[in-house]
């Protein structure tokens, strides 16, 4: 597409408030979009819950499981919509384009794992008249934020015969919640002198589960045994079953409107379900594209994208090969060309400028709440170490696309130079030689139990991803 010169008024428009752009019905649409998002993140708090909900929604929109095509050797053609499910934790959704896939795909990728507390392999014990779970935190958490708040338990227990038991405790208003204690202020003088990183330590993140003993006074660990009895009655699981479980302790409760003007959403795990949801919703609007469009929803980003369901696994590459084969256009060389010719938006959250902590930000290169989708040309630490540094040619193309579709965007760095840093899945896809840039929704409280995002930025990010699918 032709790239118009961006003049001064366009630049001003680029860095203005999204809120100034929408009136009437359009403003209603913006708010309505976040209602769907709030509902989604209130229910889907684990990677498995996100993937199964995305599959349900995709099937409603005409997507089919690619594995049935592979099994039957049934061909795919332009316009077809399929998904590939990797262990219920990673999902790749495709709309097949009219052009050869060798010309490249348009990919928006995001992750659905969020920082949380995982149960240990042997989690249940009794101490001081309480039954408790041992946990091991997952991802980067500030441990002191996880005490004294209502927590819920989500996940699966896989029994020896392969039966999957789904568990969600603490979300229904009639459910009990669980939690982690903190020391009373009256006895905390030693604790209060400690560094914030040491005040609550990893081994202190133990979940209180109950305090009623079973009746038989001759038994040991009677409180623990009562919890086991309850778990057996409700779920048919025994203590041994924890060994083959994936149980995640997350903040309990729904996402809420935040701010007196309801302009923001407070919810658990905006990082990165806000980019996964917006990418998914954007893809659902795409019909009969010229290039094949993909929403890639991955696991394990928060611990380095490792493992069979992380971005570094061969799952995506193998799936692209399968789909090229099903459209009758596969060779090893064509696969390599397809990946190298692809373009990708690596959807991940960015840090929004926080007036409470201005000293870590560089205000001229920060993202702001309500100013649209944030592009991060590079992430990384120190001298951009570990960063995917996007090509300016690609950024110029994206500027033109966003302008054509009237999407408001901003640029951001993750804080001041040498203040810290972070990474995403961008560099992993960039290894194929494709153009990749990080972009997504700026948030406050990143990795805290309750994160904050602007409804305007959520809406604009969905529109930005959709524009990319239509034009890149
Ligand atoms: Mn993230
Ligand atoms: Mn993160």
Query: Any idea how many domains?
Result: 2
Structural class: alpha/beta
* CATH first level of the largest domain: Alpha Beta
Helix count from the secondary structure assignment: 13
**Largest sheet, strands/sense/barrel:** 9 strands, mixed
Weakly predicted, low-confidence segments: 1-8
Q: CATH homologous superfamily of the largest domain?
A: Zn peptidases
Which CATH-level-2 architecture of the largest domain? Answer: 3-Layer(aba) Sandwich
Task: Please give the share of residues in helix.
Answer: 25-40%
The mean pLDDT is 95
What would you report as the Rg, rounded to the nearest angstrom? 23 Å
* End-to-end CA span: 9 Å
* Strand order in the sheet with the most strands: 1-2-3-13-4-14-20-16-18
Q: Could you say which small molecules are bound to this protein? A: manganese (II) ion
Count the E strands. 22
What percentage of amino acids are in beta strands?
15-25%
CATH topology of the largest domain: the name is Aminopeptidase
Q: Choose one word for the global shape.
A: globular
């Amino acid at each position: 597409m032709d790239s118009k010169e961006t003049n001064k008024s366009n630049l001003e428009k680029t860095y203005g408030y999204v809120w100034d752009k929408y009136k009437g019905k359009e403003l209603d649409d913006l708010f309505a979009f976040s209602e769907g998002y709030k509902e989604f993140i209130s229910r889907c708090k684990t990677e498995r819950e996100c993937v199964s909900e995305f599959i349900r929604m995709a099937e409603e929109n005409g997507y089919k499981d690619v594995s049935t095509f592979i099994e039957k050797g049934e061909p795919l053609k332009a316009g077809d919509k399929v998904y590939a499910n990797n262990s219920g934790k990673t999902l790749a959704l495709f709309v097949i384009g009219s052009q050869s896939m060798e010309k490249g795909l348009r990919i928006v990728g995001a992750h659905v794992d969020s920082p949380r507390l995982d149960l240990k392999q042997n989690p249940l014990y009794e101490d001081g008249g309480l039954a408790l779970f041992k946990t091991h935190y997952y991802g980067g958490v500030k441990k002191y934020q996880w005490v004294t708040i209502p927590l819920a338990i989500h996940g699966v227990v896989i029994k020896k015969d392969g039966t999957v038991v789904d568990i969600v405790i603490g979300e229904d208003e009639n459910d009990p919640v669980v939690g982690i204690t903190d020391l009373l202020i009256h006895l905390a003088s030693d604790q209060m002198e400690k560094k914030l990183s040491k005040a609550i330590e990893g081994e202190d993140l133990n979940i209180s589960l109950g305090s009623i003993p079973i009746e038989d006074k001759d038994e040991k660990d009677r409180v623990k045994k009562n919890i086991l009895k309850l778990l057996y009655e409700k779920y048919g699981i025994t203590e041994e079953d924890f060994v083959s479980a994936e149980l995640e302790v997350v903040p309990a409760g729904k996402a809420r409107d935040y701010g007196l003007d309801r302009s923001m959403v407070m919810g658990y795990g905006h990082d990165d379900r806000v980019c996964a949801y917006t990418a998914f919703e954007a893809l659902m609007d795409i019909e009969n594209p010229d290039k094949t469009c993909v929403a890639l929803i991955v696991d394990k980003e928060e611990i380095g994208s490792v493992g069979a369901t992380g971005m570094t696994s061969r799952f995506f590459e193998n799936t692209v090969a399968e789909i090229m084969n099903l459209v009758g256009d596969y060779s090893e060389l064509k696969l390599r060309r397809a990946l190298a010719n692809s373009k990708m938006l690596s959807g991940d959250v960015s840090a929004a400028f926080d007036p409470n902590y201005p000293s870590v930000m560089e205000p001229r290169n920060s993202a702001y709440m309500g100013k649209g989708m944030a592009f991060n040309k590079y992430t990384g630490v120190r001298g951009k170490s570990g960063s995917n540094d996007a090509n300016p040619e690609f950024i110029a193309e994206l500027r033109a696309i966003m302008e054509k579709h009237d999407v408001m965007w901003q640029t951001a760095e993750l804080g001041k130079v040498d203040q810290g840093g972070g990474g995403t899945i961008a560099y992993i896809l960039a290894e194929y030689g494709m153009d990749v840039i990080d972009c997504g929704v700026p948030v406050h409280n990143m990795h805290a139990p309750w994160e904050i995002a602007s409804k305007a930025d959520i809406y604009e990010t969905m529109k930005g991803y959709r524009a990319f699918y239509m034009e890149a």
